[in-house]
Amino acid sequence: MTDQPIAPSRRSLLNMIGLAAGTTAMYHAMTQMALADTSTFKGPIKLSPPPAGASVLVLGAGIAGMVAAMELRDAEYKVTVLEYNGRPGGRNWSLYGGDTYTELGGATQHVQFDPGQYINPGPWRLPYHHQGILHYVNRLNVALEPFTQVNYNAYVHSTTAFDGKPQRYRTVQADFYGQVAELMSKSTKQGALDQDVTKQDREILINALKEWGALDADNKYATGLEAGERRGFASDPGGGLNSVAIAGKRIEMGDLLKSGLWSAIGAGLAYDMQSTIFQPKGGMGQVGKAFGKALEPLIQYNCKVIDIKQGDKGVTATYIDSRTGGTPKTASADWCVCTIPASVLSQIPMNVGGPMKAAINQIPYMAALKVGLQMKRRFWEQDEHIYGGVTYTNQPNTMIGYPQWDFFSKGKGVLLGSYCFGTPAYIAAAKPPEERIKDALEYGARIHPQYKDEFETGVAVAWHRVPWTLGCAGFWTEEARAKHYDNLCAVDGRIVLAGEHASRIPAWQEGAVTSALDAIERLHKKAMSA
Amino acid sequence: MKSKMTIRLAAAALALTATAALNTAAWADTAGPAPKPDAHGPNISGFFSPFPFQGGEAIYKGVCQGCHMADAKGAVGAGMYPALAKNEHLETAAYPVGIVLKGQKAMPFFALQLNDQQIADVVNYVRTHFGNKYKDKVKPEDVKALR
To answer: Which of A165, A271, A383, B137 has its CA 20 to 30 A from that of B80?
Structure first.
């Protein structure tokens, strides 16, 4: 019988204590891992005073370029930054109502979101261990708020499982872990693991599995209230009369395995996805804006670099107005930090050596798509109690991200209706923006039928159509990295490259920051010995 | 053999980027018994899911025009996508086949998402449309030889 009241039994209290101990042990292990594996950021750098009058030309006012410019300026280099766009930030970018965005091919989207609503077409997360970018975010006084990656009450969804009905992340995870634990426990008892587990450890393992999988006294993942503490209940416990918890029915292992949904519950396990994650209040673009403000007199906007030449004495970049073309102008300095994405840089004449050139030509850029959908009301909160986090689906939109701000607001909200990479993103890039939005609506409505009534306006950014990157981020194969990475990063004469593509944290802003810091340290050393 | 190698290397590179999106994409790529057929069509959600288009025109419109544009005239921003229309580099068929397979500069490699037939079809389509009038045809075997 399932409808029994929940009282804290001695056993469940012991369980809770056990859980706490387990968490501490896990925390310890995780800390050690983090120390071994963290970003290379070593704290703010301090460059010694450069030779009198030394100057640096920085190409690109994205995160890498602006970190380099800020530190070099602080060291008292004379710094000039040339930027293609009319704004700072590069891929650090948010789209708000009133913004317009014109992609390659000429399609212009007029963003019609309400005030306070936005979408981050580029990066949207700041993991706690990305201490480099977090250092600058804090230095620039950009306010942060939490970003939830794993929302246990969001969905995992497959069009070919459970008749296409989305399942709660929570129940799939609990049922999968629970039944794996039950199987493991049974095998351990039957001696199937005797070759790998000592007799002494056997009992410990059985206890650990019981805790990990929320098994009952018989080491079964039963449809009982222990399981309910993980997977939730058919009816939650409450106060007063009629408040008994009613256990739900587990999803059977065979169905879980066939559904493929077990693969979607690993989202938060990756180091980059572990709590705590942050986002800037008001959009990731606030970081780029703050950087731009701090560097205001140094950045020249709307400059399309068409040639980069170095000689014995310095580096000269030739550029034209990115909007109107016109007569080429030049900017010169002793040294150059070039953060132009490799996809674009590979097309700009630049007299560097063969090894760097070969490296630049070896980095295609990944395809990615983001679609923002403004809904008239926050039905995911009001109807489904989903506050932030992400739903995962096997459809081409890959995920639905829920806004992580203004919870419980009675107003509107912007969903990330699609965030996909590779094949589905290429296909989306081949369609006009309005069709990308239409597709995202169709996929989303299979999970949230409310889409049909609540959708108002959207914007779709397919990264291969973005005029200043031609893709979302450097896509290194291990083969190419082994052969070319060091050559990409090495100082060539008076030029050094920086950006996420010159890092081992590709596609993350932390890669851009640590790449820029490493590049200017080496360039500075060369300037000091020149 | 070589393409298997590439898949493994590319998959390793993906693992490094370790975003949830890619994890999810890997989900769609997961090996195992074929899932139930999807009423909505073939699954194209994985990072390297095969493109579900057949025939040169469909492949061009479904994939290539994302960058080279519907009129094959390319586009110009901070960098550019070259025009395929009236493009003399297409004269030797092996050249576009090699670029589609292995990529070059901003052009990504498509060896994992397009099969020999698809690459032959789309190269033949481009070489006979958009002002290109090359008579010789690429066969799937020619593509295979260049993998």
So the answer is: B137
Decide if A467 and B77 are in contact by the 8 Å CB cutoff. Answer: yes
Q: Decide: helix, strand or coil at residue A189.
A: helix
Nearest to A331 by CA among A17, A97, A79, A74: A79
- DSSP state letter for B140: H
Say whether A104 and B67 touch across the interface (CB within 8 A): yes
Which strands sit side by side in the sheet containing A325-333, from one edge to the other? Answer: A303-310, A315-321, A325-333
Residue A106 has pLDDT above 60, yes or no: yes
pLDDT digits (tens, 9 = 90+) for A157-209: 999 999 999 999 999 999 999 999 999 999 999 999 989 999 999 999 999 99
Residue for token digits 């960058």? B67
What average pLDDT does chain A have? 92
User: Are the CB atoms for A130 and A514 separated by under 8 Å?
Assistant: no
A37 neighbourhood in chain B, CB within 8 Å: none
Query: Which are the contacts of A13, defined by CB distance < 8 A and separation ≥ 6?
Result: none
Distance from CA of A348 to the nearest CA of B (A): 8
A291 at the B interface (CB within 8 A)?
A: no
Contact at 8 Å (CB) between A399 and A392?
Answer: yes
Supply the DSSP symbol for A219: S
Residue of B nearest to A324 (CA): B77
Q: What 8-state DSSP symbol labels residue B33?
A: S
Assess contact for A456 and A417: CB atoms under 8 A. no
CA dist A17 and A394 (Å) reads 38
Of B39, B51, B66, the CB nearest to A464: B66
C-beta of residue A401 within 8 angstroms of C-beta of residue A419: yes
- Locate A12 and state its tokens: 């469940």
Task: Write the pLDDT tens digit of every residue in A251-301.
Answer: 999 999 999 999 899 888 999 999 999 999 999 999 999 999 999 999 999
Look at residue B3 and tell me whether its pLDDT is greater than 90.
no
Query: How many angstroms away from the CA of B131 is the closest CA of chain A?
Result: 19
Collapse the DSSP code of A36 into the 3-class scheme (helix H, G, I; strand E, B; otherwise coil) and give the result. helix
What is the SS3 assignment for B37?
Answer: coil
Assign A484 to helix, strand or coil: helix
Query: Count of CB contacts below 8 A, A vs B?
Result: 187
Where does the pLDDT of residue B11 fall: very low under 50, low under 70, confident under 90, or very high at 90 and above? Answer: very low
Give per-residue pLDDT as tens, A58-70.
999 999 999 999 9
| Residue A330 host element (H or E) | strand A325-333
Which one-letter amino acid corresponds to residue A97?
Answer: G
Cα A197 to the center of its chain, rounded Å? 38
Q: Torsions phi, psi of A331, nearest 5? A: -135, 135
Number of H helices, E strands in chain B: 7, 2
Q: What is the pTM of this model?
A: 0.89
- pLDDT (tens digit per residue) in B88-143: 999 999 999 999 999 999 999 999 999 999 999 999 999 999 999 999 999 999 99
ipTM of the complex: 0.89
Cβ-defined contact of B19 to A270 (cutoff 8 Å): yes
For residue B81, what are its two tokens?
Answer: 């996508």
Whether B36 sits inside 8 A of A160 (CB atoms) is yes
Read off the tokens for A241.
């009369």
